[in-house]
C-alpha cells in the first residue's frame, strides 16, 4: 500500500469482532514509533482498555491473565509493564475517548493545538453522534467529508474505522465488499485506500 499518506483517507472496515480496533491500535503504535504525532480518538472503547490491549500485544502478555488479576501476583508481568511505560514515553501517541463524536469537536480541538497531529485515527465512524436516527447516512457522510477537508487543510493522515453490514453474511461469498460499509455511501467515494478485514476461518 506504500504507507499511510498525509492528506489522504484510509478506511479500515470489517464486521464485528474481525479485529478493527486491534489493527488500528497497532497502526497507531507503529506510526508513533516512526516519530509521528498520532492522535487516537476512540468512540467505542475507553482509553484504559485500548492501552491494556496495546500492552498485551507489544509485550506478549495474555490478556485473559490480566482479567483474572495476574498483574498483582506475577512479577514478570509487572516488569513487562515497566518496559512498556518506557516504550510509551518514546512515542508521541495520545488516546482520547471523549472527543470525536462530531466533526466540530475534532475541528475545535485541532484549532487549539500548538502542535498538530501527523495522523488522526478514529475508531469508529458508526459511533458518531446523530440527533436524527433516520438521517444517519447523511450525518456520517457529512462527518467524513469535513474530516477529509481538515486532513488536507492541516496536512495529516486520516484513518477511519467502519463497520461492514451484517447482511453480507447471508451471501454465498462472505468476503466483505466496500459497498457494504454500514450507514454510509460516501466512504467508497472519498477514501483513498480501503483495508477490508476478514478472517475466513471465523465464517
Which helices and strands, and how do they pair?
Layout: E1 9-14, H1 20-33, E2 38-42, H2 47-59, H3 63-67, H4 75-89, E3 93-96, H5 103-111, E4 119-123, H6 136-154, E5 157-163, H7 187-190, E6 193-196
Parallel strand pairs: 1-5, 1-6, 2-3, 2-4, 4-5
Helix pairs in contact: 1-2
Q: What can you tell me about this protein's structure?
A:
This protein has 203 residues and is of the alpha/beta class. Helix content is 39%, strand content 15%. The protein is built from seven helices and six strands, in the order βαβαααβαβαβαβ. The chain has helices at 20-33, 47-59, 63-67, 75-89, 103-111, 136-154, 187-190; strands spanning 9-14, 38-42, 93-96, 119-123, 157-163, 193-196. The protein has a six-stranded parallel β-sheet, with helices on both faces. Helix 1 crosses helix 2 (47-59). It is globular, with a radius of gyration of 18 Å. The model has no long low-confidence stretch (mean pLDDT 86).
- N-to-C span: 26 Å
Largest sheet: 6 strands, parallel
Rg (C-alpha, Å):
18 Å
Mean pLDDT: 86
A few lines on this structure:
The protein is an alpha/beta fold and 203 residues long.
List the main descriptive attributes of the protein structure presented here.
single chain, 203 residues, alpha/beta, 7 helices, 6 strands, 39% helix, 15% strand
Amino acid at each position: 500500500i506504500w504507507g499511510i499518506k498525509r492528506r489522504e483517507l484510509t478506511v479500515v472496515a470489517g464486521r464485528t469482532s474481525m479485529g478493527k480496533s486491534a489493527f488500528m491500535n497497532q497502526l497507531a503504535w507503529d506510526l508513533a514509533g516512526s516519530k509521528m504525532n498520532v492522535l487516537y480518538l476512540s468512540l467505542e472503547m475507553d482509553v484504559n482498555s485500548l492501552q491494556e490491549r496495546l500492552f498485551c500485544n507489544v509485550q506478549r502478555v495474555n490478556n485473559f491473565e490480566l482479567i483474572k488479576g495476574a498483574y498483582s501476583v506475577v512479577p514478570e508481568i509487572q516488569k513487562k509493564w515497566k518496559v512498556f511505560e518506557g516504550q510509551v514515553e518514546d512515542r508521541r501517541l495520545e488516546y482520547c475517548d471523549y472527543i470525536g463524536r462530531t466533526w466540530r469537536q475534532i475541528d475545535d480541538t485541532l484549532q487549539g493545538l500548538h502542535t498538530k497531529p501527523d495522523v488522526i485515527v478514529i475508531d469508529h465512524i458508526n459511533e458518531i453522534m446523530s440527533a436524527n436516527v433516520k438521517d444517519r447516512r447523511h450525518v456520517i457522510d457529512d462527518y467524513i467529508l469535513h474530516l477529509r477537508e481538515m486532513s488536507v487543510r492541516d496536512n495529516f493522515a486520516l484513518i477511519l474505522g467502519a463497520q461492514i453490514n451484517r447482511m453480507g453474511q447471508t451471501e454465498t461469498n462472505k468476503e466483505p465488499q466496500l459497498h457494504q460499509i454500514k450507514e454510509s455511501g460516501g466512504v467508497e467515494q472519498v477514501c483513498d485506500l480501503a483495508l477490508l478485514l476478514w478472517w475466513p476461518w471465523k465464517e
